[in-house]
Amino acid sequence: MKIKKVLAMCLISAMVLGSFAGCGKDEGESTVSVNQEDPAWKEAMTTPYGKYPETVNYTLGKTVTNFDVLDGTKYEGDDDENNAWTRYLKEKLNVQNTNLFEANDGDDYEQKVSMAIVSGEIPDIMGVGDYDTLKQLYENDLIADLTEVYENCASDKIKEIYDSYDGVCLKTAMFDGKLMGLPTTEISHGPGILWLRKDWMDKCGLEEPKTMEDIYNILEQFLVQDPGGNGEGKTVGLVIDPEIAGDSGGSYMANNIFTLYGAFPKQWIDDGSGNAIYGSVQPEMKGALEQLSKMYNEGLIDKQFVTRTGDDRKGLLNSGKSGAFFGNWWGAWEVADSMTLNKEARWEPYICPVGADGKVTMFTGNPNSSYVVVRKGFEHPELIVKLANMQFDYSRYEEKDDEAYKELADYSELNAGGTILGMNIDYYDAFPRSSKKVVDALESGDTSPLNRHDMGTYVNSKKYLDSLANGEESTSAGWASYNSMTAASLVAETEVNKVTPVFFGSTKSMPLKWPTLDKMEQEMLLKIITGEKPVDYFDEFVTEWNKTGGEQITEEVNQAIKQ
Questions:
Q1: How many angstroms separate the CA atoms of 451 and 390, rounded?
Q2: Measured between alpha carbons, how far is 391 from 408 in angstroms, rounded to an integer?
Q3: Quick one: CATH architecture of 193-363+500-562?
Q4: Residues near 519 by beta carbon (within 8 Å), at least 6 away in sequence
Q5: Residue 224's CB: how many other CB atoms inside 10 A?
Q6: SS3 for 505?
Q7: Which of 84, 129, 353, 367 could form a disulfide linkage to 212, CB 3.0–4.6 angstroms apart?
Q8: Domain segments of the chain: what residues?
Q9: What are 156-188's pLDDT values in tens digits?
Q10: What is the pLDDT of residue 35?
Q11: Quick one: 2-185+369-413 is in which CATH superfamily?
């Protein structure tokens, strides 16, 4: 909230000083003389990949890239304005950037954006870190309408990618029916996955879990039978984060248990009649809290979860003290070290518990986290779309043999950055989609459907499988890469019920009141689960939550949605 307040103050100051009238270059100013009737210019300005007949120079605001990783390579000396990506774009589109400002990602960058707005020197293209900043820029008429250039110049695949979010992602960047920025896409984290020690399950004679009762029984048998040989009373139950639930992409979240009971903690959801309600104060929460409290009381949940750090949680799993945690498809990386510490350890992913319909229910995350905008008056607003085409479509899916493309591949291997647009545009189900293709390629040997990102996963997975086949020792990283991929494939094959929250932003009262409400909620969760308070304490919490500002904020959220 601090950065948003800084920006708001900067905008107010700028309006008082009258500096908005001349932000950046004058409208219509261009780096080259453009003849709109020239077929070459017309094609460049209205097609996804058309190359400009003369070099188009543009200014950029971007996050800092660490080019030090290129020291000692043939790319040593590359910088923000001369690197693999700028050379690639010069060859393909005939464009060249000059960085108006650079800053470290996060608060430093957002402060640079605020300063650029106040100074009247806005770059032609820049990223903005949140919806509030985008809204301020739109309301003060500082950014270009991208509706027409998106329709004309976005490649079919870019449009297909945005469409995979069912229109929700692009909608967040629209005001009065106009597209005012390109949103970053946040790929789906998928449903929560229960990762279990399969070798422990085999020792205990346990079947794979589906229902809550199955999970309960497995955790109980892990404690009673002690398949890890820890000694009586020393095996730890389900490892969870003290935050407990609410982060759709977080590890150690008990989201699946809450959604089993129809509860959606920390999410603004539709009540079925078009009104937004806050999931954490709905009566469905009580069933999940009662279940978790019972599990904690019986030792099926780590008794010390409230005070564990992230390293503590990983240590419990990798050392064999616990054999269960909720994660996501990348959860294999959390327990990769257990492969080194115990050669017999086998972790398997399970999407559970299922409800009466046989499906897991999940809530989706925020479809986007930031935006890229164009300064109003820049003569080539279509450039932002063409850059997106090259960075997130052509170079990923189409390009194969070009020399400039090979430089991009080298950068990737060297873990170097340099991309122009500090964002990502990818399918909602990007990783499961990619993983399924890689799994198919591993089975068939046909790699032709794979793009360059898929090929990296394919090569690592092939090495892992080959080492197993040859009786050679595989690396923990190879194991984690392969098993995260197969977990993502499981996600792709599993039908789930998806609930999409209706609001992710902020309201007028949130900066002041939300920290207190959030603290109240966290205390309620911990007190009930650990048995300090009975489940009925939840009703008392809801009353206090509403009185302390929750009711007012709920009204504001609904007003924001209607607007």
A1: 14
A2: 10
A3: 3-Layer(aba) Sandwich (3.40)
A4: none
A5: 11
A6: coil
A7: 353
A8: 2-185+369-413, 193-363+500-562
A9: 999 999 999 988 899 889 999 999 999 999 888
A10: 67
A11: Periplasmic binding protein-like II (3.40.190.10)
